[in-house]
Design a protein that fits this description.
270 residues; eleven-stranded antiparallel beta sheet; 30% strand; globular; single chain; 16 strands
Length: 270
Amino acid sequence: MEAPLYPDVPPDPFTPQPAFWVGPRHLAGDDGRFYDVVADALSGLGWTGLTIVRGRHEPGEALEDRQVLRSTVLHISPDTLRWAQWVLADEPFHLGELPIAWQISARAEASSPLAQWSAYFTGDVPGEAVADFLVALDASDQPAVQLAGSELVLDAVAAHGWIRDIDQPQAAATDPTFTSHISLGEVPPLIQDADPRALTTEGDERGPAGWQAWAEPALGAPCLWAASFGGSVPHDLVAAFAASLSTTAPVLRRVLPEATRERLLRAPAD
């Protein structure tokens, strides 16, 4: 749930809400513009946007009575090796009890029909962090190849003051308020990945470890946002997301998540 920066003043739909610079970014939400921010970044990268509408039209039925069953907005890179799909309107599965909003995938070859890996982001993930992840993905010559070690991700957040986990210093870190977390470990169900171990694990066996990130405003409280990266997502791409998420640089916001608004520092943008 999001709230205006001035909660005591009824919003005027015809008057733009005042903008503020707020921080930290990882608690600032998506400003209610998650699709727009990411889609604008994709457009700037030259990716092609497609809208796919699926529906059912019975014989003799008026066109305006057609039942639209599913709609998808798909953005594809010029080399067709990477794509991003807005799935919030398509009855997506949930991550941390939150519906997935963006699914981003890459494959090794254009001739392959299957993604090598996928990454997933729920609403209220800061759009700037997803945009920076996409910029790094777009710039990669080999988007489906692991070129760096996992340490790169933890170094990215540690450089911005995040604290390594005492029990798992090589696999997890948290922000200084212990609200947002990033961890390399077991991948949640339904996360797509081409690594065959993700499909063949049974019983106590574990598949490939992947990066997970989330914000939990209070112990036991619902997550504000969550992100999941399949085990084959290159660590350097996750590091680009982690660095953007954990940066101390403020972001421009007009609406804030209700769960974290009291934790955010604000300065008028004017």
